[in-house]
Amino acid sequence: MSEEVAIRLPEPADAADLLALLARLQTESDTFCLANADETISAAQEADQLDQIQQSSRHLVLVASLGDELLGVCSIVPTPQGNVGELGIAVEKAYWHQGIGTALVDEALYWAETASSLVAIGLTVQTRNTAAVKLYEKLGFTRTESPTETVTTAEGEHVSAFEMVYHLPVDLD
């Protein structure tokens, strides 16, 4: 019997493995960059953050796991507007094009619609990342009116990118 990939909330006990996954992901893709990547965080600090995130209606972290191995991560963090979340997602290269990214984003959007206090989910995607653009469009994201911008990769390369948004259904009850 083969194992299936699980999409789940990370436990504080996953903290060290999550930090290791994030480090690996930064080396595998030039479209994935961590905010505050210069800052070192301990597994204990990460475990504490994961515990706090689980109590929030504006923050989410999901992981994809195969047995005990973490192979993908998806997050939603509030933007300065407060009621809009920013989506981030990355999957290890060995698992690209297997539906894991779709499953992570789909589950994050379900959380946003049913459990969050957010009104929209936004993201910035590099123009050259056509697979990601197709994924986001398939799941209901649309390109915003904002002009194309230039972002800097972790390697210092300047590439064009644009914003996309997913508007959450309004509950009229």
From TrEMBL:
Q: What is its EC number?
A: 2.3.-.-
Please list which residues make up the signal peptide.
Answer: none
Q: Which SUPFAM superfamilies match?
A: Acyl-CoA N-acyltransferases (Nat)
The record's listing under PROSITE patterns reads: GNAT
Which keywords appear in this protein's UniProt record, sorted alphabetically?
Answer: Acyltransferase, Transferase
Q: Is Acyltransferase set as a keyword in this record?
A: yes
Q: Gene3D superfamilies, per this entry? A: 3.40.630.30
The cross-references to InterPro entries, in alphabetical order and at most eight, read:
Acyl_CoA_acyltransferase, GNAT_dom
Task: Identify one Pfam family in the record.
Answer: Acetyltransf_1
At the top of the EC hierarchy, this enzyme's class is transferase
Query: Which stretches make up the N-acetyltransferase domain?
Result: 5-169
Molecular function (GO) terms for this protein are: acyltransferase activity
Name listed for the protein in its UniProt record:
GNAT family N-acetyltransferase
Q: Which organism is it from?
A: Levilactobacillus tongjiangensis
Q: What is the lineage of its organism?
A: Bacteria, Bacillati, Bacillota, Bacilli, Lactobacillales
